[in-house]
Design goal:
- With about 325 residues, the chain is of the alpha/beta class.
- The protein has 2 domains: about 5-230, TIM Barrel, CATH 3.20.20; about 245-325, Four Helix Bundle (Hemerythrin (Met), subunit A) (Up-down Bundle), CATH 1.20.120.1460.
- It has 16 helices and 8 strands.
- Strands 1, 2, 3, 4, 5, 6, 7 and 8 form an 8-stranded parallel beta sheet that branches.
- The longest helix has 23 residues, at about 300-325.
Length: about 325
Amino acid sequence: MMDWTDRHCRAFHRVLSRRTLLYTEMVTAPALVRGRARHLLRFDPSEHPVVLQLGGSDPRELAEAARMGEAEGYDGVDLNCGCPSDRVQSGTFGAVLMREPARVADCVDAMRAAVRIEVSVKCRIGVDEQDPSEALPRFLEAVRAAGIRSVTVHARKAWLRGLSPKENREVPPLDHALVARMRAAFPDLRLTLNGGIRSLEAAEAHLADGFESVMIGRAAYERPGDILLSADERLHGQAGPASSREEAVEAMKPHIAAHLAEGGRLADVTRHMLGLFAGRPGARAWRRHLSEAARRPGAGLDVLREALDLVNAAGAASEQEFAAR
């Protein structure tokens, strides 16, 4: 989710769900340690619980980056061993580390020694010609031996040669059953299932099947109203912070106003809100207006009001059309 789940995205998702565990976009340890990019760690206390996801392959750098994350107040730190992008491969981290479970074990061992917050791992079921039924348990054995107790498994192989990052999210077949078998083989690990989970109904089915948790990525980003707005009530039996999409928009205004006061652009925030009304009357008008008007110089909160007016008008027209049938 690089360039997607930044602090504005997480602030928006938090006004939709209070209980969902949020993850940062992947931040590379070299950028933090050598590049002095500590600003990438910035987050608002309202985002808790939130986990810092790191990329890297050097134990010392990852340990230092984990210390920085703990000092900033993150609830946990996660090592990404699943991202298949070219720039990740060139840095010898992400999914390519599935080939080097011993190195991953060294990395997480150093990270765990450096911090008191939980260190977790996100991985694939294998890469390229690896047999997932052999590669995944070998990987899990290595990180478990290094003290890891929580692993998120994207249940697809990553093809580092021949597929783009987008294709790697869609083309390799899902193998949820393999991850389920790993629950029995590694009962002391908390395995979170990721990949191909496109609805709350699907998440509930996997939870009922024995998984303690599931991770939803792009579906939650593309259709946050469908996935996150009712997640607290359906999965945790508690009311969420917003009872409607319109309430969520109102709840975002203080965050947006603060960002604008700092000299930021409206589009920095609203680009993460484009899918809020997906599947509802007015969704296209909402998306179009925010996409265009939020980028104009000086765009402010009035753009949100205008976009909501378009949604309300479309909703009223839809109701009139239904009544006339």
